[in-house]
UniProtKB/TrEMBL annotation:
Listed name of the protein: Cytochrome P450
Any GO BP annotation: abscisic acid metabolic process
Natural source organism: Nymphaea colorata
InterPro entries associated with the record: Cyt_P450, Cyt_P450_sf
SUPFAM superfamilies: Cytochrome P450 (SSF48264)
Keywords: Iron, Metal-binding
Molecular function, one GO term: iron ion binding
Length: 35
């Protein structure tokens, strides 16, 4: 991707971290994910 100089990019972390293909059962708090 080409992002013009001066633009701000804000990734949608909530959407990324709630992807069930990457994080099974994304609504469940699982502290072991952060080890």
């Amino acid at each position: 991707y080409l992002i013009p100089k001066g633009w701000k990019v804000l990734p949608l972390f909530r959407n990324i971290h709630h992807n069930p293909e990457i994080f099974p059962d994304p609504e469940k708090f699982d502290p072991s994910r952060f080890e």
